[in-house]
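Dear colleagues,

For the upcoming journal club I promised to circulate an example of a predicted protein-ligand complex. I picked one with magnesium ion because it came up in last month's discussion. The inputs are reproduced below in full, followed by the predicted structure.
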Amino acid sequence: MTTLAPAPSAALPAKTNREVDTRPLLWPSVIVLFLWMIVPLAMTLYFSVIRYNLLNPALTGFAGLENYSFLFDDPTLWTSLWNTLVLVGSVLIITVVFGTLFAVLYNQEFPGRNIARLLVIAPFFVMPTVSALVWKNMMMHPVYGLIASLQSMVGLTPTDWFTDYPMFSVIVIVAWQWVPFAFLILLTAIQSLDSEQKEAARIDGAGPLAMFFYITLPHLSRAISVVIMIETIFLLTIFAEIYVTTSGGPGTATTNLAWLIYSVGLLQFDVGYASAGGIIAVILANVVAFFLVRTVSRNLQQG
Amino acid sequence: MSMPSTFQKPPRWIPVLAWVIAILIFFPIFWMALTSFKTETEAISTPPSLFFVPTMENYTDVIDRSNYARFVWNSIAVSFGSTLLALAFAIPAAYAMAFFPTKRTPSTLLWMLSTKMMPPVGVLIPMYLLFKTLGLLDTVTGLLIIYTLINLPIVVWMLYTYFKDVPGEILEAGRVDGANPMQELFLLLLPLAVPGIASTGLLSVILSWNEAFWSLNLTSSQGAPLTAFIASFSSPQGLFWAKLSAASLMAIAPILVVGWMSQRQLVSGLTFGAVK
Amino acid sequence: MAEVVLRNIKKSFGPVDIIKGVDIDINDKEFVVFVGPSGCGKSTLLRMIAGLESISDGELSIDGKRVNDLSPADRGIAMVFQTYALYPHMTVRDNMGFSLKLAKVPKAEIDRKVNEAARILKLDPLMDRKPKALSGGQRQRVAIGRAIVRNPKVFLFDEPLSNLDAALRVQMRIEIARMHSDFNATMIYVTHDQVEAMTMADKIVVLQGGVVEQVGSPLELYHHPANRFVAGFIGSPTMNFIDATVKAVAPEGVTVELPGGDNLTVLVVPGATKAGDKLTLGVRPEHLQEGSGDGKLTGTALVVERLGGATYAYVKLDNGTMITAEVDGNSHIRVNDPIQLGVRSQTCHLFGSDGLALAQSTRHPLADVGRGKGGH
Ligand SMILES: Nc1ncnc2c1ncn2[C@@H]1O[C@H](COP(=O)(O)OP(=O)(O)OP(=O)(O)O)[C@@H](O)[C@H]1O
Ligand SMILES: [Mg+2]
């Protein structure tokens, strides 16, 4: 029956289709993504610890943590971190609150509902440079802007939005782009709410408010957390809107981390210093990414 | 006490509110569209002119004068090129992970996703220098490579979720019928997954078309797509608004239509399948 | 000629052993049914025969040839899946011809074979439709047609009828049985439906937890279950099990005391059984009748289900054991009535504390009779 010597065929791996060698299929993607992840990051890390300024080739050598200490002593860094926080925080609050309310609103039956929904999600598909310019020129311009015209029509002095309320203006533009995103995701999520569950709640005597807080909101909680995390990743490095409108100003009023790195690196060409800033951005993003990956992986295990 | 009715009709103000909000949100786009049919003087007249004789002048001007065709072409080349390239990389990878999963598959997927979390500013400086050294600055090729890389994780993920939905038994039936893995992929899986592949491609095209970090930083004229071209209008104050509007409308209209048509599928792609 | 022989077949998914050493001999042209509770490994075993799942250990041969390492397409098998697994983007014709196309069979011959199969299955008017435009029964037929076209040595079916409604299931059952006699092919059929197993099989393989509990003809399993598991699994409603103590042992049978004090001599080979042993008496509901027999059981009817032809009484015996009895359709028994049930000694089974059955003294005359004309 059993022999001690292994059968010759046992040495060969069983070759049914299940054990197909998938490396040639998978590895191209893995390799390019690995390079994309590791090479620029390693370079940033390297640049951040050397003296490297394109305008001053004489400046060379290992800098240690010099760039970082300059950076941490620079008040602009702290301003830009604070601005980043304000921008991300306000846009998140605005988009989640309005996204949720709109999702509930546009989930009601009313004539032309589908067209109204299309109008609401439209801004998300507009390229950031166009959105920024439309708001800057046609809506918020102190002389020719529509808002200025309305103000003078009712006898008010037109506001110079980008000078007097620069951060607010940028927030308006960014929120206009991202409320539709939150709305689109949350509307999809709300539609998956079991209608029998709603009917059961109604039979149990839940009014519209109770329905919202006890049924709808809990149902949306996971979608909301996904919205928050995805938006955070994009909002942390908002760039085009600032580039087109305020260029980080006036002063440093709208300088966020992305703009700081850009201006130091590509306008002042201080590569070492900018790279140190880049590393800070990477660390910030990774904190957020950690939570997002955890949520998604929980999801992966369920599915 | 009022009798609670089971057939609650939504209150009358709901449609009114919903429509007012929708119109307000859409208004900037509408206003831009309107402006694009005005003359430059009408475009900046105060108070704004509501009644005017529409003109196509801006469109013809933009198309004739400003190398507009080149920017359009760059946008098309970059977004479709990077999408096709990403699909070429992602289809085999998603196929392998969906149908030949190993213990490492979930972590591979999550790792791919995490590369998407890298903030572009974190690697802006080295990429700029690298592109400069390689002569890729301001080229379509350079941008195409970057877009392929930043969209690849999303494309793999979306395809993976679509492939997962294809019943495994169909591919097994194919194997019993004598199909080898390549035939399984090309004769069975791809035809079945056409809708999924199409919406994945659309999302990738939309994201690339609207991308405005790398295009602003790595291109200026020769390789610039529409996003960068439009940004060049930001300098002269109050000039060429009508033309800007015309150029912008042409730049966003196709994507807007595509986005409207595929919103449902986009949701699962944008949330990595977390919301369907 | 296509025997299928499984020798000590094992399967593990990672550290978990799913199939724990299975030996089965399937003769040429035999209709073999794998039954067992959900999760026992029926599909896994079938898929290993098909080549869709690798074999962790053991030998599988088809037609005398070791096929462990052959791809599914090279094993001479065809498979009908539970979900049919039709290619949704191909017409019925293309679905059926796909395997031949892959094998580079000339077009004319593909057409001939596909048309032939279509004729047999009465699919002719549907050949240019896509699967979406077919009813469940039609899809089922196409799936079978796809298998027929390959002219396999062995047909494999994984619960092919479970997605059909009851009437269609009966009809397809008959058709598959007819197909079996027409094609003269070996068929292996997985189901958890007893009726399918009993009516279609030449040989039933009862699986549980990855091991074979018993192999035999349908009536052999019914009349001579090897153990309590098979006894309880085959037959519907399920067999009643009653604790019984051995009173006396004789060469022709074992006498046990029933609850309520009656003695009953069951005609089994005593083996090592001795007086005082605790055994389990097994008696099927259809072998109980109202009144008296060789022994009697008394209790109260708790639930009465009248099916017309028969009446099921769910009875609580005086010692608290619950049993089911299939009594006459015209019985006047009502809920909460006291009831007396008679037991006949020929139809009873005895199981030891290890669950194994004591062999019946005489073999049931139909236990070794095959299903059809073929003499196995
Ligand atoms: N790919 C796999 N990985 C891990 N475990 C598996 C895999 N496939 C099946 N199993 C396990 O093997 C066992 C047997 O599965 P199998 O599908 O063969 O059961 P079955 O007898 O066909 O049941 P059912 O009647 O429900 O179809 C189950 O416990 C199942 O969880
Ligand atoms: Mg099964």
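Two points we might discuss: Confidence is low (pLDDT under 50) at residues 1-17 of chain A. Residues C 13, 18, 36, 38-44, 192 surround adenosine-5'-triphosphate (ligand 1) (CB under 6 Å).

See you all on Thursday,
B. R.
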